[in-house]
């Protein structure tokens, strides 16, 4: 690691900036004509760190996805009048009253062979496990059902803060129906119409009171505490086999019989002389008649594991073409802001032709994570397992790295001078200065004289990676444009 780069494990009063560095930076901002409050707001917004997680749970057809769409302000979660609807994505980012948080949507219910109660409970468990607070949605018109009561018992056991949403209260006449839900023992029912927006503001105010400003750090507890590694990938890609191989024993049941499901397993495993906590997300197998639902469960469990982890080892079956599902899992880990290692399994089974085409697929299908360390392994034989730990350590180092503001601005000055932004509409915007607002992952805020195009931002990110060894980590770059100064009267 370069000597001018410092891993940053703590947050100062001014985000990632120390007092002296902050004072120097604000002086620079003032010289360039930026308002102090504007600069402080940009640094705070860019350096928020991990966002608190809110789980939306409830039985089928109570309006969970409609509520999610209402909260995030756009129609993104799939809404349909029947249970069993699946969606590719289960996490969204939302904002209310200036505070940002993540939502885990647990729609997509289905009545499987174990019964609807089991389906509700299973999804609720996964979501609650990853959440800092829960919105429990109940249909006020129907009232509390046996399934609702089962979920209440689950919530009490979990001990997470709960906001009770009495949905489908479209007018004053429905208020009495909502009042009956006091009987659930979860406190005040908030009467809401997710469809029309009635009462959602008051409910979200209660959500903000329940959510922590920042989620508890559940990983890296104390100096030398075990780092949390999520082992993720498509069903049957070899996650359990890989976990057993790195553990050196049969810790996890490996079963190719369709229909095997079980709880996620957290395993303390010594690898490369270091103890790691592996969060295994295997165990979801495709049932032929419940294929869509099984995929949805897998996505939900993967999202929960990634939220709990520092780094994701994404296992990909090298013997098969890189699939859309592989790409979605990669995107999920990137959007969660986790360090990433790509592990291509079954490498020992590939012939020269397959290896050639796989390299082409990686270049095109996984271009968004070209920066991630890659290992070619065999979970069955243990081939190249010794390369896994160095790749993990490299990615975590990049994830935690902070560049001092002075060094960053020297780099930006040289970059802008050598490669200025293209002229657009007769104007040439310039990056004036910047700072790293946070780590885990690295988050930068750049201050500019005008709008910086997406292509130029990608160029700056690429050069940042080259210069400061940000390998294996997403980088978040936000740009704040200097407002035009008003003419003096």
Automatic annotation (TrEMBL):
Entry keyword set: GTP-binding, Nucleotide-binding, Repeat, Ribosome biogenesis
Record-linked CDD domains: EngA1, EngA2
Gene3D superfamilies from the UniProt entry: 3.30.300.20, P-loop containing nucleotide triphosphate hydrolases
GO biological process: ribosome biogenesis
Record-linked SMART domains: AAA
Entry binding sites for GTP 2: 233-240, 280-284, 345-348
GO molecular function, one term: ribosome binding
Keyword Lipid biosynthesis: no
Family annotation (SUPFAM superfamilies): P-loop containing nucleoside triphosphate hydrolases
Keyword Nucleotide-binding recorded: yes
Binding residues annotated for GTP 1, in chain numbering: 58-65, 105-109, 167-170
Region forming the signal peptide: none
Ranges for domain EngA-type G: 52-215, 227-400
Function, in words: GTPase that plays an essential role in the late steps of ribosome biogenesis.
Family membership noted in the UniProt record: Belongs to the TRAFAC class TrmE-Era-EngA-EngB-Septin-like GTPase superfamily. EngA (Der) GTPase family.
Subunit structure: Associates with the 50S ribosomal subunit.
Name this polypeptide is given: GTPase Der
Native organism taxonomy: Bacteria, Bacillati, Actinomycetota, Actinomycetes, Kitasatosporales
Gene behind the chain: der
């Amino acid at each position: 690691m370069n000597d001018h780069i410092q891993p940053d494990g703590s947050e100062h009063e001014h985000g990632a900036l120390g007092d002296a560095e902050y004072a120097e930076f604000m002086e620079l901002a003032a010289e360039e004509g930026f308002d102090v409050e504007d600069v402080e707001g940009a640094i705070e917004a860019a350096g928020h760190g991990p966002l608190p997680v809110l789980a939306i749970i409830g039985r089928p057809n109570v309006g969970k996805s409609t509520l999610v769409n209402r909260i995030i302000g756009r129609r993104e979660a799939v809404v349909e009048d029947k249970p069993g609807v699946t969606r590719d994505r289960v996490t969204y980012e939302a904002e209310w009253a200036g505070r940002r948080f993540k939502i885990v949507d647990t729609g997509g219910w289905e009545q499987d062979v174990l019964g609807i109660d089991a389906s509700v409970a299973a999804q609720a468990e996964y979501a609650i496990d990853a959440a800092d607070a829960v919105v429990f949605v109940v249909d006020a018109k129907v009232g509390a059902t046996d399934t609702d009561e089962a979920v209440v018992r689950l919530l009490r056991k979990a001990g997470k803060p709960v906001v009770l949403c009495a949905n489908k209260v479209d007018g004053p006449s429905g208020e009495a129906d909502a009042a009956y839900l006091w009987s659930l023992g979860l406190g005040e029912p908030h009467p809401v119409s997710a469809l029309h927006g009635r009462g959602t503001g008051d409910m979200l105010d209660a959500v903000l009171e329940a959510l922590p400003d920042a989620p508890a750090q559940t990983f890296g507890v104390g100096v030398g505490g075990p780092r949390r590694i999520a082992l993720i990938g498509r069903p049957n890609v070899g996650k359990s086999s890989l976990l057993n191989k790195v553990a050196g024993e049969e810790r996890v049941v490996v079963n190719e019989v369709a229909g095997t499901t079980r709880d996620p397993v957290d395993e303390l495993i010594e690898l490369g002389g270091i103890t790691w906590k592996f969060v295994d997300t295997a165990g979801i197998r495709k049932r032929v008649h419940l294929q869509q639902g099984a995929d949805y469960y897998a996505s939900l469990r993967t999202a929960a594991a990634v939220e709990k982890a520092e780094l994701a080892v994404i296992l990909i079956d090298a013997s098969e073409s890189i699939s859309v599902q592989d790409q979605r899992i990669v995107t999920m880990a990137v959007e969660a802001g986790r360090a990433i290692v790509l592990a291509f399994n079954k490498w020992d089974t590939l012939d020269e032709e397959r290896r050639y085409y796989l390299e082409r697929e990686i270049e095109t299908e996984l271009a968004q994570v070209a920066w991630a360390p890659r290992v070619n392994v065999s979970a069955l034989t243990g081939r190249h397992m010794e390369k896994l730990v160095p790749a993990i350590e490299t990615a975590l180092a990049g994830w935690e790295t902070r560049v001092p503001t002075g060094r960053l601005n020297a780099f930006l000055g040289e970059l802008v001078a050598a490669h200025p932004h293209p002229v657009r509409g007769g104007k040439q915007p310039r990056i004036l200065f910047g700072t790293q607002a946070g780590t885990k992952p690295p988050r930068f805020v750049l201050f500019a004289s005008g709008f910086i195009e997406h292509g130029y931002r990608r160029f700056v990110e690429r050069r940042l990676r080259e210069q400061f060894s940000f390998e294996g980590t997403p980088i978040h770059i936000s740009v704040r444009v200097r407002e035009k100064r008003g003419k003096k009267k």
